[in-house]
Design a protein that fits this description.
By secondary structure, the chain is α/β, with parallel strands linked by helices. Helices cover 34% and strands 30% of the residues. It has a five-stranded mixed sheet with strand order 3-4-5-6-7, sandwiched between helices. Strands 1-2 form a two-stranded antiparallel ribbon. Strand 5, helix 2 and strand 6 form a beta-alpha-beta unit. Helix 1 packs parallel to helix 2. The chain is globular.
């Protein structure tokens, strides 16, 4: 949780669901420097289990700062090293900072969960371990 400028506490939640062998980590709230624990720790745990694919759903993220970019890139690096296909659901709040930072060039970004799941499922099995 972080402190908002008006003094209110912002809530950040993350939970994991399985969609036919694809792990989906759903994150909601603000991801900024005040975020104490990485909401994407669940995504890193999923990569270690080497699922058929991983989707990080950031569609309900209301603020996405540089720490969020670093968190997503950290998960991406681990997913690449473990040959786990990765896709990210990103609305404008998330896609704009990823575009501006150049991170979007290496990520598979999608506007909704259905498209992200489809993208992960189309990765050829030989690219997976």
């Amino acid at each position: 949780m972080g402190q908002q400028s008006d003094g209110a506490i912002s809530t950040l939640t993350a939970h994991t669901v399985d969609r036919d062998g694809i792990t989906v980590v759903v994150v909601a709230g603000e991801i900024d420097m005040a975020t104490e624990d990485s909401p994407l720790d669940q995504a890193l745990d999923a990569v270690r289990r080497r699922p058929a694919g991983l989707v990080i759903d950031l569609g309900a993220v209301s603020f996405f700062g540089s720490s969020g970019i670093n968190m997503v890139l950290n998960v991406w690096r681990h997913a690449v090293s473990e040959s786990v296909p990765l896709a990210v659901v990103a609305g404008r709040t998330v896609s704009r900072p990823l575009d501006m930072s150049g991170a979007a060039a290496v990520l598979s970004l999608h506007p909704n969960l259905a498209e992200a799941l489809a993208a992960v499922r189309t990765v050829p099995p030989q690219r997976r371990r």
